[in-house]
Amino acid sequence: MSRVFAYCRVSTADQTNDNQVQEIAAAGFAIKPQRVVRETISGGQAARERPEFAKLLDRLESGDVLVVTKLDRLGRSALDVRSTVDLLAMLGVRVHCLALGGADLTSPAGKMTMQVLAAVAEFELDLIRERTSAGLARAREEGKKLGRPSALSPAQAQEVKARLARQEPVAALAREFKVGRATVQRLRPAAV
After folding, report:
1. Cα dihedral sign, 178-183-188-191
2. Please, what is the angle between helix 108-141 and helix 78-90, to 10°?
């Protein structure tokens, strides 16, 4: 008899994969809690490199079924999704995607559908990157300061520079100003 597993992935710690578990149950899959694999990791990381997915691969056997709510739970890149599904098919594991009407991604029709949708998902990700890059460029042109705010005020930074010039220890300054050593070291004058 086939064992059924669920792979539920979210990208950030402030997200929860409870909705994915509920969606899988609502679709009629009765999955034992020990077969629900939850992971918090970016979909940009290859599936085989994700710790929980790698453990899942070790548990899966021929005849098993892996259920995901959406194709992008397996990965963001079309190449990664395809190689992951191909690997699972080679292991004899069927992959069902609820967003594709429960299609078995290892079947010929499922493979074709998966390739089209994975390509669309990758295209969408490329568009997001392009828009983000354009927005950052525009912000730079407008003179906006990007990145994390400085840990030291301009006055504190000047004081640290002056004290570094007097050869005061980096570690002591870092402790006094409650910043990391690297923050203090970045203020050292460049060696000539």
Report:
1. positive
2. 150
pLDDT tens, position by position, 143-157: 988 888 888 999 999
Tokens of residue 6, six digits: 């669920």
Tokens 């909705």 — which residue?
A: 19
Task: Catalogue the active-site residues.
Answer: 11
d(CA 67, CA 26): 12
Q: CA 122, 123, 128: angle at the middle one, nearest 5?
A: 95
Name residue 30's beta-bridge partners: none
pTM of the model: 0.61
Q: Which pLDDT score is estimated for 163?
A: 93
Q: How far is CA 12 from CA 15, 41, 42, 102, in A?
A: 6, 6, 7, 26
- Residues 68/72/74/77 CA torsion (nearest 10 deg): 160
Spell out the domains of the chain, with CATH numbers in brackets: 4-122 (3.40.50.1390), 154-185 (no CATH)
Is the sign of the CA dihedral 77, 83, 87, 90 positive or negative?
positive
User: 161 or 107: which carries more pLDDT confidence?
Assistant: 161
Do you know the residue count of the chain? 192
Q: How many Å apart are CA 155 and CA 170, to the nearest integer?
A: 17
